[in-house]
Structures are given as structure tokens and as C-alpha cells.
Amino acid sequence: MEGFYTINKSTSAEITEKKSKFIANLFYVENKMQAEELIKEIKKKYHDARHNCYAYRVLDNEKILEKQSDDGEPSGTAGNPMLEILKGKNLCNVLVIVTRYFGGILLGTGGLARAYTEAANKAIEFAEQIYKCEGYLLEANMEYKTIENFKYYCKKNDINIIDIQYSDVVSCKIELDSNKKEKLMIEIDNKNIIINNIQVLCKKFINKSVEK
Which tens digits make up the pLDDT trace of 79-115? Predict the structure, then answer.
């Protein structure tokens, strides 16, 4: 897969529809196990609520795993509409749970779907989104006299330095996308950047901020 959007921290939102209260909680999750544990925690927290409906999408072995639940609401009125929101916005590694406290007035299937959708969308609007694209983790080793030039190059080209170790030489671990990797290798080959050696440690999804 090419990439996806996710969030950097949890958000929540609340709406009221015909006296029913809908509380949406949006979480960043890294796997199915983490999502399922959060669902249990929310159900325990809101144990007196009528419904705790949810939807999530997580990256699992380079494939997206999806799950949703209406938790007792009429089939297709809660979990699936929220899952469609996540899919439509290309959100992944995200869990949304909407808790409903019944207000005594029936909303009908269309009203329920609109309420769960509105609550989920509101929580998503409050979230700061991050784009994750395919990239690489590299390790570059260099002399002390060249580290400042390398740091300047990384800052100028939006390359994330995630770790620097100082010993006989300076060792930097960096994250960058495919295009920046190719450009860096050309700069090294042309001696515009002086380093002792560089190696690819692994492929990974890297973060890019998203402007609202």
C-alpha cells in the first residue's frame, strides 16, 4: 500500500439527538489487540450506557484489517457507517467508539446512522492528522567535523533524524521517503555530503504532518 492517514493523539466529541447522548472517542492504535483492549476499557467506563458501537482499521502485515460493531443497534446503523467514514478518509491505525445513552425517543434507522456518523466525524475533526508513507530507516556514520553539515542538510530537506550516537565516529539514524533517499544517495555519490558509510536498516512507514 502507498500510504494512509492516522492521528497523533486521542480526541473525543459529544452530540445530543432527540435527548439521546452520543459520546465519540477516537484513538490511535497500532494493532488489533490494542484496539480490542480499548473497546473493553470503554465498555467498562460507560457500563451504564445502552450501546458502545465501534469501528477500526489497523495495518496488519501490510494489509488493512477492518472490524465494526453495532453493539445491539439495528444492523448497519452504527458500526458500518463509522467504518465507511474511516475508509473514505483513508484513516488507518484508528479506532472510533461511539457510546449512546438512550434518551427515550426512537431515532429510526436513518436517524441513528446520521447521529453515529455526526459524532464520529466531529471527533475526527478535532484530531491532528498525520500521513504515513512508505519510507526507510537508514544509518549513516561520519566524522565529527561533518555532522553539522549533515544535520543542516537533513533539516533543509525534511529528513527526520531520530537518533545520534557519538563514539569513535558519529552514527545517525534517519527516516526518509523513497524520493529523499534517492536524492541523498546522489548527493553522497557526488561528494556533496561527506560520510563514511550509509546502510538501509529497514523499510517502514514514516510520518508526514498534514496541514488543515
Answer: 999 999 999 999 999 999 999 999 999 999 999 999 9
Provide the sign of the torsion angle of the four alpha carbons 59, 74, 127, 36, taken in this order: negative
CATH 3.30.70.240 residue ranges of the chain are: 133-209
The reported pTM is 0.80
Q: What angle do CA 162, 163, 167 make, to 5 degrees?
A: 165
- Where do you find CATH 3.30.230.30 in the chain? 3-127
Label residue 100 exposed, middle or buried (CB < 10 Å: 0-12, 13-18, 19+): buried
Q: Tell me the CA distances in angstroms from 184 to 77, 164, 171, one per residue in order.
A: 50, 18, 16
List, in order, residues 6 or more apart from 128 with CB less than 8 Å away. 7, 8, 9, 210, 212
What phi, psi does 14 have (nearest 5°)?
-140, 135
Cβ 46 vs Cβ 98: under 8 Å? no
Quick one: which of 88, 74, 116 has its CA closest to 4?
88
**Does pLDDT of 206 surpass 90?**
no
CATH code of domain 133-209: 3.30.70.240
How far apart, in whole angstroms, are the C-alpha atoms of residue 123 and residue 11? 6
Assigned CATH class of 3-127:
alpha beta
Pairing of strands 51-60, 63-69: antiparallel
Contact 191, 185 (CB under 8 A): no
